[in-house]
Amino acid sequence: MSEIYYPKKEMFTDPLIKNMCEYNDLVEEFEKDYEGTWGKYAQEKIDWFKPFDRVLNEDDAPFYKWFEGGELNVAYQCVGRHLKTKKNKAAIIFEGDNGDQRTLTYRELYYEVNRTANLFRNKFNIKKGDRVVLYMPMIPEAAISMLACAKLGAIHSVVFGGFSAEALRDRIIDAEAKLVVTADGAFRKGKPYMLKPVVDEALEEGCDCVEAVCVVERNGEDIHWEAGRDYAYNELVENESVQCEPEMVDSEHPLFLLYTSGSTGKPKGVQHSSAGYILWAQMTMEWVFDIKDNDTYWCTADVGWITGHTYIVYGPLAAGATTVMFEGVPTFPDAGRCWKMVEEYQINQFYTAPTAIRLLHKMGVDEPAKYDLSSLRILGTVGEPIDPAAWKWYYEAVGNSNCSIVDTYWQTETGGHMISPLPAATPIKPGCATFPLPGIVAEIMEEDGTPTPVGEKGFMCITKPWPSMIRTIWNDPERFVKSYFGDCKKDGKAVYFTGDGAMMDEDGYITITGRTDDVINVSGHRMGTAEVEAAVKKHDNVAAVAVVGKPHEIKGEGIFAYIVLKDDEGVADELETMKEINTIIKSEIGAIALCDDMAFVPDLPKTRSGKIMRRILRSLVKGEAITQDTSTLEDPSIVGIIEDILKKEC
Ligand code: 6R9
Which residues are annotated as modified residue N6-acetyllysine in the UniProt record (predicted)? Predict the structure, then answer.
């Protein structure tokens, strides 16, 4: 039995959900009238320009439509509408790696978004529905550009700044982007790093769709300038008007695409809607982070990931909160950087990933004690399961045993939190995402849709559509249906399949046990094995490869590759090959996909039909006993051979 931690009631003043009775009442309200309750929230929370006339349309399931008939503008929902009551409130507080500080009030943010939207519209001819790729560092202009797109009804696709030119090119081409917004570069650990050269390289081939590149100045380093294609943001935006009419869009109009890894093939462009997405971003911000008017909220994610979209930009701003944007890394100049910022800005909600908690724990166990962290009320985690040691340190050393830890389980595809404690209400068991949020019907099932018994591991499914769910995969509706709506059915209808394993205990608490597919969770970031393998195969001397996750002290999971060489000339050759392979991965995907370790093996365990048995490879790398039946393998002896090779390497 794990320990239970009760919320400290004195930490909360008038939270939206005060206790488990209120939670249960809300769940019941949704149960009794699912559509009516969602409709009520949509009416209450969104500033509609035209009211919707239907809550949920399931005719074309799983292509669900929410709030049909409604018209809105997401930038208005996040910025414009707040001018009435909070024009002088800080919307974004920026802290640079180099200590730069900048605060934008809602009024200032409104003007910046408008000028940027005017620039996109007037200079680059961006119209409703056009795609704009953002390849940006963590600076306010990233959020401003996202909102400027929303203002025009243009669809942004943010590509994480750590991705390579190749990865960026693939995304630009798939999205058929007309404009790329980037920066010269930014700062990391006190030194400048570059982004624009990566864009230049990406645009070398196949990107005919791109008409212009808009470059924000951040680090002032020299960059190549392509006349007629590249435009200086800072100079041009000055001349634009601070007034800009928002473009009204339908509820279902795509707000953005965000590419994420799946278990097979290339990354998929997850498409999100306008109304449903922003509604849930705002509601979860209010429920899970208990956002109050005077709070300062900080999420350490990068805007290149969904957490940055929903919980740095859209959620906090829709809720009218003050959101902190941090350009640097948590361990620079030392492992006290975050705690120093918490003290300085009097942060009330701090949201980060278990990998960062483990790193900060390891590098600076006593650092939190050096700062006044008493402003903190809620600590959040996201991205991967959190282990009890990290949880305890976070709770005690950072939260002074006063804060509620919200372990938020969700995905790029879900748009916002699915399973999470409510900070003032839910008694918490460490390492447990606890209960589905009201309105979310999450169930643990077997592959055939039967319920998984309590205490056993099954598949996490969401059995009713919800407003912020993925709408489709850009350019590939078939893959959307195939990836998420498979054999798991309830009442004859395919349910949303998360790809995660989960377990429920006798008290109804849900623990997420990790991916059940070929996706590796590296530092909370999803990497598809197929993508990494495709990169490794580009090496001339690689005959076959299989990539699996291997437990890693800080990253959660690291990437481990089993490699069969065409021609193996010994250890020296292998070491060289390892380096070469990682160089290829870096240029094909980016440094986040580098292999931590590799083993050179004579063959891979395959079934007679040629399918690689990854489960065996996963068990082998963890040093687990092989429980799978190996008699169906083409060559069962290979398992023992690989085992010996791994033992020798250790
Ligand atoms: C938001 C985000 C999604 C995958 C997801 C799961 C893992 C996220 C988690 C968690 C355990 C949590 N995951 N939150 N696992 N506990 N609180 O991370 O989106 O990048 O799409 O990753 O991350 O495996 O399926 P995304």
Answer: 611
- Does ligand 1 have an atom closer than 6 angstroms to the CB of 348? no
Cβ neighbours around 94 below 10 Å, total: 19
**Using a 6 Å cutoff on CB, does residue 515 contact ligand 1?**
yes
Sign of CA dihedral 266, 579, 623, 431: negative
- Looking at residue 625, its pLDDT comes to 84
> Is 409's C-beta closer than 6 angstroms to any atom of ligand 1?
yes
What six digits make up the tokens of 575?
Answer: 């070491």
Whether residue 290 is predicted with pLDDT greater than 90 in this model: the reply is yes
Q: Which atom of ligand 1 is nearest to the CA of 386?
A: 16
What's the 3-state SS for 168-208? HHHHHHHHCCCEEEEECEEEECCEEEECHHHHHHHCCCCCC
Residue 465, judged by CB atoms within 10 A of its CB (0-12, 13-18, 19+), counts as: buried
The tens digit of pLDDT for each residue in 381-393 reads 999 999 989 999 9
CA of 549 to the centre of ligand 1 (A): 15
pLDDT for 204-218, tens place per residue? 999 999 999 999 999
Mean pLDDT of the chain: 96
Write out the two tokens for 229: 């294609």
- Its sign, for the CA torsion 499, 501, 504, 510, is negative
254 Cβ contact list (under 8 Å, min separation 6)? 129, 155, 271, 272, 273, 274, 471
- Residue 300: partners with Cβ closer than 8 Å, 6 or more residues away: 326, 330, 338, 350, 351, 352, 353, 356
pLDDT tens column, 295-339: 999 999 999 999 999 999 999 999 999 999 999 999 999 999 999
Q: Is the CB of 108 under 6 A from ligand 1?
A: no
pLDDT at position 575: 87
Which residue's CA is minimally distant from atom 17 of ligand 1? 409
> Is 189 annotated for ligand binding?
yes
Burial of 446 (0-12, 13-18, 19+ CB in 10 A): middle
For the cut 80, the answer to whether the pLDDT of residue 456 exceeds it is yes
Residue 409 Cα: closest atom of ligand 1: 17
The protein residue with its alpha carbon nearest to ligand 1, atom 18, reads 383
Separation of CA 258 and ligand 1 centre (Å): 15
- Mean pLDDT across the stretch 52-57? 98
Ligand 1 pocket mutation, candidates 259, 260, 411, 459, criterion most atoms within 8 A of CB:
411
Look at residue 340 in the predicted model and tell me its pLDDT.
98
**Is the distance from CB of 240 to CB of 115 less than 8 angstroms?**
yes
Tell me which DSSP letter residue 428 carries.
B
11 alpha carbon – ligand 1 mean position (Å) = 28
Q: In whole angstroms, give the CA distance from residue 205 to residue 10.
A: 59
What's the confidence (pLDDT) of residue 650?
Answer: 59
Question: Cα 187 vs. chain centroid, distance in angstroms?
Answer: 22
Give alpha helix (H) positions in 463-528. 477-484
Give every CB contact of residue 341 below 8 A, 6+ residues apart in sequence: 95, 298, 324, 326, 347
Spatial separation of the C-alpha atoms in residues 448 and 524, rounded to whole Å = 29
For residue 570, is pLDDT > 80? no
Ligand 1 within 6 A of CB of 282: no
* Residue 583 is labelled as binding a ligand: no
Write the DSSP string, 550-612.
Answer: EEETTTEEEEEEEEEESS---HHHHHHHHHHHHHHHHHHTBGGG--SEEEE-S---BBTT--B
Q: CA dihedral defined by 545, 546, 550, 556, rounded to 10 degrees?
A: 100
Q: Is 463 in the pocket of ligand 1 (CB under 6 A)?
A: no
